[in-house]
Design goal:
Layout (H helix, E strand, L loop, with lengths): L1 H9 L1 H21 L9 E10 L5 H16 L5 E9 L2 E8 L5 H13 L11 E6 L4 E9 L5 H16 L4 E7 L5 E6 L1 H7 L15 E10 L2 E9 L4 H5 L2 E3 L2 E2 H4 E6 L5 E4 L2 E2 L1 E7 L5 H18 L3 E8 H31 L2 H8 L1 H16 L5 H14 L1 H16 L4 H26 L7 H36 L12 H12 L2 H20 L12 E7 L6 H17 L3 E8 L3 H4 L9 E8 L5 H10 L8 E6 L10 E8 L2 H16 L4 E6 L4 E9 L6 H12 L2 E8 L2 E7 L8 H5 L2 E4 L2 E4 L4 E9 L2 E4 L2 E10 L4 H12 L9 E6 H31 L3 H7 L5 H12 L5 H28 L5 H32 L10 H29 L1 H21 L1
Parallel strand pairs: 7-25
Antiparallel strand pairs: 1-3, 1-4, 2-3, 2-29, 5-15, 5-16, 6-15, 7-12, 8-9, 10-11, 13-14, 13-18, 17-19, 17-20, 18-19, 21-30, 21-31, 22-30, 23-28, 24-25, 26-27, 29-30
Helix pairs in contact: 1-16, 2-12, 9-10, 10-11, 10-13, 10-30, 11-14, 11-16, 12-16, 13-16, 13-30, 14-15, 14-16, 14-30, 15-16, 15-26, 15-29, 17-30, 17-31, 18-28, 18-31, 25-26, 26-27, 26-29, 27-29, 27-31, 28-31, 29-30, 29-31, 30-31
Pfam families: ACR_tran
Protein name: HAE1 family hydrophobic/amphiphilic exporter-1
Keywords: Membrane, Transmembrane, Transmembrane helix
Length: 1006
């Protein structure tokens, strides 16, 4: 350290250039650093989605999910496999160990599912592995003016899609609500019979009718020409005139209609629309991509009067808001720290010297973040906001020591250097211990590491930069700025010294009192409910309306439109979107749902009362019998509830699983603060299964025949206004009763027979959705929980389930938000222990003794007292971020004790232990209070500001840090000296005895 300090003084011109370069590099880095909402992190899960229109849940489970599960059974690194099969969709989720290379895992899954043979009319498997970089940047709607043809719509859709994909930095563009027009041929059984035309004749109606081929070349009039044959059907009327038999046209025996259908329904404010969801690519700048989207929208709206495009929500705007709000809190924190220094120093020059460390440290931090490839996001900016208070700590200790020496000694450069050297060991040790707290974050696994490591690196860079500034720039500036400054002498507080002397004489009293407070605070924390991080936004509301799966889609959409109109009529609502159905584009991103589910998103007007709208929606439930209507706050990024506790009941016997699940539901409903209990086995629908006599007919042949008779069959395509439109032959049979089913005629090896003669229909009630866990059937019971009571409810549910005795072969697994919360907290507690060990090791190396660091470490014991007191006073429910605040405090509070004990060790060369403690406490009280109050002041904007959704820098964290730091600082000044003397009680007792003897001898001599 001496060489660094002396080197700065010997190269003043070079230091000026370095300062300018650092500031310039920091500004440049800030302008070029990619901005995003969250740091890039892989979700350790791969999702395989398949959509199969017309297939029921049982068929999807048997024909699709089962085959996928079998092909995925050998995938390496997976921890468990969950699958869901419903009407028209199948989804398999593979969870992996946190150390798995997810890109390799996705490739392996892709390879496995590509070899699976799936039934006809089922989509290919869509494999997706989510990453935080895939969080959408913009949600854009596109509506068309009246009179725009389908062909024009298709061209415009493609133009917009291409324009979005061409934006620099764009990753994926997802589109829903796309038009899929079709021509339906509905055969009339009576007319077919009257004309003597078999329905099979309709299958080939388009065969050879629409063609374009080259038939050769010839020489005409001395010139070589090509000869082509071409025919195309351009409209429905031409299709009706096609012959299906001698003298019989298609229109004579069937109804031919043009249907402007959609793959999935998406509407905004009651008008059909397209929705584009734009995501950025890896390492792209979210703000620049968002600007590119804005430019595309502006261009299309100006150049095409037939379209209207607008942004519903933009996360790039949220990124800008996050950066601005965090930077505002950084500046406010710096301002508070400056005020604290000015109040204590009462010297403008010394204050200006001290706060120089803030811009210099921030500039160096931004440059190092750029070199490390870390982006500007709510976590790195949060790290800067938290670090601001600590950025001036080292500089405060240096300037205060220089200031104190100048009060008694004549100014000189040597004095400045010596005063800096005097505290160099203390500030270096305190900075390294704070950094050491964050090093174990590299030992965390999975998403927790991905989120905390950028925060930790930001803190590390900030603190190392501030240490370097404190050892070089601060003494150098002090030598220039304080040269002719008049400094009044500051005397240590005599009252405090007397208080400490009394405590040292009765040391067991304050020590026991402190430990009783510690035990009480820990007990209070254990009893306190732990909440979930609230990531909901009152700016948006989500509403869902779901009917039983056997409800006709026409009825679902009729009532869906009715509720849509009600939501649009609310004056608090700015716009309403409606979504229904599955699309290939959505399935590519793992988004599949029941066809009878209608989802709404509501954008609230500024200052509108969201609770009022939610209550109004709940009051509408009676108007929609048979529908389940739910509402809540949310946003476009929400992927499920963060406050749900679920219990999985697994086994091979569905009946026993069902009975156990019923018992679990009954137990969970009795737990306090459980808002709602749901089970995936509740929904049933009627299923008719044709049990074929294998000696009479082939079940495979009959299944193929019935699929053709009961489902739409593609028979070709025609071109309408330049757009290719698929032609479908609709079901020729539409049974409406059980007798109709039995009277169906099928072909067998011995000729046509009534289906009742070779098989029988069996009626049963089956689940609408099938769930598997690791290949076994399971029932999931989900409990929605009051967010602030998450931990208590999780514990209560486990306690209630202890009384449930499942039959042999049936097992219970408790998971969900409370289990995730417990796992994260255990990881943090383990990290805390490792941090404490590293901190102790650094101090042992610094002080070259075991006992002094042990006294310093006791300051950590007082952290819970202040942290819990802060939570109680503010009434804030502790969550995951509160625990993280305690981890941070380990590094922060020991710095004060290090500054104190370092002075004690210097004093012991010429004083007794007690005299050393009293002098050190009196001398170091001012810098200790200054650093603590400056850190508290810098954290205040986080208490009163609005924390960003998904950020670990929350109000809860700020309150824990402030409370823990205030109490531990006060107790450090009193309890740490008591414990230090207790650890050296024999030596201290001998010194006091010798001093007393010397005093008596001196009195006798006099």
């Amino acid at each position: 350290m001496k060489s660094i300090i002396n080197g700065a003084f010997r190269n003043k011109a070079a230091m000026i250039i370095i300062v300018i370069m650092v500031l310039a590099m920091g500004i440049l880095s800030y302008t070029k650093l990619p901005m995003e909402f969250l740091p890039e992190a892989d979700n350790p899960q791969v999702t395989v989605s398949v959509i199969g229109p017309g297939y029921d849940a049982s068929s999807m489970d048997r024909e699709v999910t089962g085959k996928l599960e079998q092909s995925l059974s050998a995938i390496k690194g997976k921890t468990n496999v969950f699958s869901t099969s419903g009407d028209g969709f199948s989804q398999v989720n593979l969870n992996f160990d946190a150390n798995t290379d997810m890109k390799e895992a996705k490739l392996e899954v892709d390879k496995a599912v590509s070899a699976v043979q799936l039934p006809a009319n089922v989509s290919p498997p869509y494999v997706i592995q989510f990453n935080t970089s895939m969080i959408p940047i913009s949600f854009v709607t596109l509506t068309f003016a009246d009179g725009v043809s389908d062909a024009q719509k298709e061209l415009l859709e493609q133009d917009v899609l291409d324009a979005f994909r061409a934006i620099d930095g764009v990753g994926e563009v997802q589109m829903s609500g796309k038009s899929q027009p079709k021509v339906s041929i509905v055969p009339d059984a009576d007319k077919l019979a009257a004309k003597g035309v078999p329905v099979q004749a309709l299958y080939g109606v388009l065969q050879g009718r629409d063609a374009s081929a080259s038939v050769g070349e010839s020489t005409l009039d001395g010139q070589i020409v090509n000869l082509n044959v071409s025919a195309s059907l351009q409209d429905v009327e031409s299709l009706k005139k096609l012959p299906v038999a001698d003298g019989v046209k298609l229109g004579d025996v069937a109804e031919v209609n043009f249907d402007d259908a959609k793959e999935s329904t998406f509407r905004i404010d009651g008008k059909d629309a397209l929705e584009f969801i734009i995501s950025k690519g890896a390492n792209s700048n979210a703000v620049k991509v968002g600007d590119g989207v804005d430019e595309v929208i502006k261009t299309f709206n100006e150049e095409n009067k037939s379209v209207n495009m607008k942004i519903m929500i933009s996360t790039s705007e949220q990124v800008v808001h996050s950066v601005n709000s965090m930077m505002r809190e950084v500046l406010l924190g710096a301002l508070f720290a400056t005020i604290v220094i000015l109040i204590f120093m009462r010297n403008v020059r010394a204050t200006l010297v001290t706060i120089v460390s803030i811009p210099l440290s921030l500039a160096m931090t931004l440059y190092l973040l750029d070199l490390s490839g870390i982006t500007l996001n709510i976590l790195t900016l949060g790290g800067v906001a938290v670090a601001v208070g600590r950025l001036v700590d080292d500089s405060i200790v240096v300037i205060e020591n220089i200031f104190r020496r100048l009060q008694k000694e004549k100014f000189s450069s040597e004095l400045i250097i010596d005063a800096t050297k005097e505290v160099a060991r203390a500030i270096t040790a305190s900075t390294l211990t704070t950094i050491a707290v964050f090093l174990p974050m590299s030992l965390l696994r999975g998403g927790l590491q991905a989120f905390l490591l950028p925060f930790a690196l930001t803190m590390t860079y900030s603190l190392l930069s501030s240490l370097l500034v404190a050892l070089t720039i601060i003494p150098l500036m002090s030598a220039g700025v304080l040269k002719n400054s008049t400094i009044k002498e500051h005397q240590p507080s005599k009252r405090f010294v007397k208080l400490l002397e009394w405590n040292l004489r009765h040391k067991w009293l304050p020590i026991v009192a402190a430990f009783l407070l510690l035990i009480g605070s820990i007990a209070t924390y254990v009893a306190m409910p732990k909440g979930a991080i609230d990531s909901s936004s009152a700016e948006n509301l989500t509403v869902s309306m779901e009917y039983k799966p056997d409800t006709p889609i026409s009825e679902v959409m009729e009532n869906g439109s009715k509720l849509e109109a009600f939501l649009m009529s609310r004056e608090e609502v700015e716009w309403v979107t409606l979504t229904n159905g599955n699309s290939a584009d959505a399935a590519k991103y793992g988004a599949v749902s029941s066809p009878t589910l209608v989802s709404y998103m509501l954008k609230m007007k500024p200052d509108a009362d969201a609770e009022k709208v939610m209550e109004a929606v709940k009051a509408e439930r009676d108007n929609y019998p048979g529908a389940e209507i739910n509402t809540g706050t949310g946003n476009f990024l929400s992927g499920g509830s963060s406050t749900q506790v679920f219990v999985d009941v697994t086994g091979n016997n569905l009946e026993e699983i069902g009975k156990t699940a019923d018992e679990v539901v009954a137990k969970m409903k009795t737990v306090k603060d459980v808002l709602k209990v749901e089970s995936n086995q509740e929904e049933k629908k009627t299923v008719y299964t044709l049990e074929v006599n294998p000696t009479e007919a082939k079940a495979g042949d009959i299944a193929t025949q019935l699929q053709g008779m009961l489902n739409s069959v593609p028979v070709g395509a025609i071109t309408v206004e330049g757009q290719s439109v698929q032609v479908l032959l609709e079901p020729s049979l539409k049974p409406t009763s059980e007798s109709d089913l039995s009277s169906l005629t099928v072909m067998t090896d011995t000729g046509p027979k009534p289906v009742s003669s070779v098989a029988k229909w069996v009626k049963s009630e089956q689940s609408t959705t099938f769930f598997h866990k690791d290949g076994k059937s399971y029932v999931r019971i989900s409990a929605s929980v009051e967010p602030s009571q998450l931990s208590k409810v999780g514990t209560a549910i486990k306690s209630e389930l202890a009384d449930v005795k499942p039959p042999e072969g049936v097992e219970l697994f408790v998971g969900g938000a409370s289990a995730d919360q417990s796992a994260d907290m255990i990881s943090l507690f383990m990290m805390m222990l490792v941090s404490i060990g590293i901190v102790y090791l650094i101090m042992v190396i610094t002080f070259k003794t075991l006992r002094a660091p042990l006294a310093i470490m006791t300051s950590i014991l007082f952290v819970p007292i202040g942290a819990v007191l802060g939570l109680i006073v503010t009434g804030v429910t502790p969550d995951f971020t509160a625990i993280f605040g305690v981890v941070m405090l380990i590094g922060i509070v020991v710095t004060n004790a290090i500054v104190l004990i370092d002075r004690v060790k210097h004093n012991e060369e010429k004083m007794t232990i007690r005299e050393s403690l009293l002098e050190a406490a009196g001398t170091r009280m001012r810098p200790i209070l200054m650093t603590a109050i400056a850190t508290v002041g810098a954290m205040l904007p986080l208490v009163f500001g609005s924390s960003e959704s998904g950020s670990i820098v929350s109000q809860s964290l700020a309150i824990v840090v402030i409370g823990g730091l205030v109490v531990s600082t006060l107790l450090t000044l009193v309890i740490v000296p008591c414990i230090y003397e207790l650890l050296h009680f024999r030596k201290s007792a001998r010194q006091r005895k010798a001093a007393a003897t010397a005093m008596r001898e001196a009195a006798i001599t006099q």
